[in-house]
Specification:
Blueprint lengths: L1 H5 L2 H105 L5 H53 L1
Helix pairs in contact: 2-3
Length: 172
């Protein structure tokens, strides 16, 4: 042990300080390596997230465009159906106008042919024809407007169902 005692104490302190310094330097180098590795992993993760986000946005755009296309197609189909209903309604209104003219002609003819009948009977008969003719005209108008409204609502409902069914069917 004589050679250990021959070294001054400050040398032992210096050796201890160098050993501790080297250990700390080793820890710093290892931590820097781990930090660089973590930064690389973080950058890779950010790239993956950005790519996934881009793909999801593209898929969402494609799905939105597909749904809009389905809705546009069904809307066009519904518009064509409504145009047909408008044409049929105009034709029905024209026929109803002819029918109303015929009723008016019958009313006028009824009052002209009833001159030979007693005054009370003529008034009662003419009154009945006038009332029934008026009721028939009103019923015809109401039936036409109800039929038109019903057909329009049916077409709108079918168009909505077709849009939803088209979106579901093509989305699966």
């Amino acid at each position: 042990m004589s050679w250990l005692a021959a070294m001054p104490a400050w040398c032992w302190w210096l050796i201890a300080l160098v050993v501790v310094g080297c250990g700390q330097q080793y820890r710093v180098v290892v931590a820097q390596g781990e930090t660089a590795e973590a930064r690389t992993e973080l950058a890779d993760y950010r790239l993956v997230v950005a790519e996934n986000s881009r793909r999801a946005a593209a898929q969402a755009r494609a799905e939105e465009q597909r749904r809009q296309k389905v809705a546009d197609e069904e809307g066009e189909h519904a518009r064509k159906n409504l145009e047909e209903v408008t044409i049929r309604t105009a034709a029905a209104e024209s026929a109803a106008g002819g029918l109303r003219g015929e009723i008016a002609r019958l009313r006028a003819g009824r009052s002209a042919t009833c001159d030979t009948i007693a005054t009370q009977q003529r008034q009662a008969g003419a009154s009945a024809v006038v009332v029934l003719g008026g009721l028939l005209e009103d019923a015809d108008r109401m039936a036409g407007s109800c039929a038109t409204a019903l057909e329009r609502s049916r077409i709108a409902g079918l168009a909505c169902e077709a849009v939803v069914e088209g979106i579901r069917r093509k989305g699966e």
